[in-house]
């Protein structure tokens, strides 16, 4: 029996994962997990969706650097003009991963 | 199995449904809400037949759990036409015969709309790159590209 939870803080997510008695998987964009779930390659008891945690998705400038949140979709990287100015290679690389459809789900498309 | 209560808007209409956690957004759109325009092709995010918009972004609805959609605005192919008035993209697909079996067409139209919303004047190369995630085994793509570029010109008032 599969359960789903979308915690709103990192602490909550960590505590849920630490106290889970069954097999738990972290979900962000779903390009890996949903394909594995669908094909029966993974059978988790719990899915912990981290996208509702503020700040885990999106790009921020801090101390002269860019912080790209772990759950940032590739499409958001592709659209970030400030990042494009300074790190055009990073943006170009993100735009070459998968396709326009998959990049909004997240990062590297799998298994493609 | 515990069901989740999910509230979303679909094509501007507030909608609620109950679903089990393993169901994808595509499963719920088709089987629960009877919006069968979005198609299930590969179930792995490769073919684009299930393309929908989530908060203005193009996504594979087969790669998103229905529970993840909570609070989001979903747009599907069913929202493209206004009543009996087809969207220019739909009209141009018909004029250019940009489809044969039609299975990929809803996904291609949603993806093309997403492109033109962002870039009203795309080049042929940009259009081909953007639509690379929508596979069509009938047309060979040329007619699709011509239809999208023609619709873009019409939407720009040319």
What is the topological layout?
The complex is a heterodimer of chains A (112) and B (158).
Chain A: E1 3-5, H1 10-19, E2 24-27, H2 33-39, E3 46-49, E4 59-62, E5 65-68, H3 74-79, H4 81-86, H5 88-95, H6 100-105
Parallel strand pairs in A: 1-3, 2-3
Antiparallel strand pairs in A: 4-5
Chain B: E1 4-10, E2 13-19, H1 25-32, E3 51-54, E4 57-60, E5 73-75, H2 88-95, H3 105-118, H4 124-130, H5 142-155
Parallel strand pairs in B: 1-5
Antiparallel strand pairs in B: 1-2, 3-4, 3-5
Describe what this molecule looks like in 3D.
The complex is a heterodimer of chains A (112) and B (158). Chain A has 112 residues and is of the alpha/beta class. Chain A is 38% helix and 17% strand. The model of chain A is unreliable at 107-112 (pLDDT under 50). Chain B is α+β, with helices and mostly antiparallel strands and 158 residues long. Chain B has 5 helices and 5 strands, in the order ββαβββαααα. Chain B has a 5-stranded mixed sheet with strand order 2-1-5-3-4, sandwiched between helices. In chain B, helix 2 (88-95) packs across helix 5. The radius of gyration of chain B is 16 Å and the shape is globular. The N and C termini of chain B lie far apart (55 Å). The model of chain B has no long low-confidence stretch (mean pLDDT 96).
């Amino acid at each position: 029996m599969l359960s789903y939870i979308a915690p709103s803080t990192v602490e909550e997510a960590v505590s849920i994962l630490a106290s889970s008695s069954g097999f738990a998987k972290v979900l962000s964009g779903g390009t890996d997990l949903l394909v594995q779930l669908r094909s029966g390659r993974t059978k988790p008891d719990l899915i912990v969706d981290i996208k509702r945690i503020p700040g885990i998705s999106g790009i921020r400038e801090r101390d002269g650097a860019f912080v790209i949140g772990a759950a940032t979709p590739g499409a958001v990287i592709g659209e970030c003009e400030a990042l494009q100015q300074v790190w055009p290679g990073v943006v170009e690389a993100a735009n070459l991963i998968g396709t326009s459809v998959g990049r909004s789900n997240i990062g590297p498309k799998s298994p493609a | 199995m515990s069901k989740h209560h999910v509230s979303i808007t679909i094509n501007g209409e507030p909608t609620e449904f109950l679903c089990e956690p393993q169901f994808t957004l595509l499963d719920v759109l088709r089987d629960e809400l009877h919006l069968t325009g979005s198609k299930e092709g590969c179930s792995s995010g490769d073919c684009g037949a299930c393309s929908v918009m989530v908060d203005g972004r193009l996504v594979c609805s087969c790669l998103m759990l229905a529970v993840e959609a909570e609070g989001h605005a979903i747009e599907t192919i069913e929202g493209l036409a206004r009543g009996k008035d087809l969207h220019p993209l739909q009209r141009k697909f018909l004029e250019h015969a940009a489809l044969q079996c039609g299975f990929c067409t809803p996904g291609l139209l949603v993806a093309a709309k997403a492109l033109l919303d962002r870039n009203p004047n795309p080049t042929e190369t940009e259009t081909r790159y953007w639509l690379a995630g929508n596979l069509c085994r009938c047309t060979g793509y040329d007619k699709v590209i011509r239809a999208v570029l023609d619709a873009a010109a019409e939407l720009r008032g040319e």
